[in-house]
Every structure is written in structure tokens, then in C-alpha cells.
Design goal:
Layout lengths: L4 H29 L12 H19 L20 H9 L3
Length: 96
């Protein structure tokens, strides 16, 4: 006697649900085991390191004076100076 249609559907639905659960579990396991390799820090030029230190000093001074409103303006007029915009962005806001 052949199986009824209802029992056959239940079997397929149960098999599908088991496969889905196994797929989700395997994906979660693979994601947990494969942590990305940390990227090595790029070397910063001496001029950029000095400029970043100057910015940190000015930020600390503004904080001590109670001017810690989060807005400071900086300018550089040195001709031929290194472009430190990427280094500054990484140092002060790299996690964004």
C-alpha cells in the first residue's frame, strides 16, 4: 500500500527543516572559526607623527581650558609638507 500524500509531505518538510538547521549551524560554525587576520599598521612618517602629536596636544589643551566642544580647526602652511590626511583619519577615527 503506497504512503499517503500527507505522510509523504511531512517527510519532505521534515527533511527540508533538518537541512536548513544543519546549514545554519554550519554557517555559524564557519563564521566563528574564521576570524579575519589583523592588518599590520602602516608606518607613519616622522612629519605626520609629529603633526598627530601636535593635534593631540592641542586637543588636550582645549579640554583643559573647557573648550571641549568637539570643534577644532587646524592649518598647515608648510610648502612640500607630507599629506597626512589618511594617517590622521586612521589615528582619530579609524574604527568608524
Amino acid at each position: 500500500m503506497p504512503k499517503s500524500i500527507r505522510t509523504s509531505r511531512r517527510t519532505w518538510v521534515a527533511a527540508w527543516a533538518v537541512l536548513c538547521v544543519l546549514g545554519v549551524a554550519a554557517t555559524a560554525g564557519m563564521n566563528a572559526s574564521s576570524a579575519p587576520d589583523p592588518q599590520p599598521e602602516k608606518p607613519v612618517s616622522a612629519e605626520c607623527a609629529e603633526y598627530i602629536a601636535d593635534i593631540e596636544t592641542q586637543l588636550a589643551k582645549a579640554k583643559q581650558e573647557g573648550k571641549d566642544d568637539g570643534v577644532l580647526a587646524f592649518s598647515r602652511s608648510t610648502v612640500g609638507a607630507d599629506d597626512c590626511s589618511d594617517e590622521i583619519r586612521e589615528h582619530f577615527g579609524g574604527d568608524r
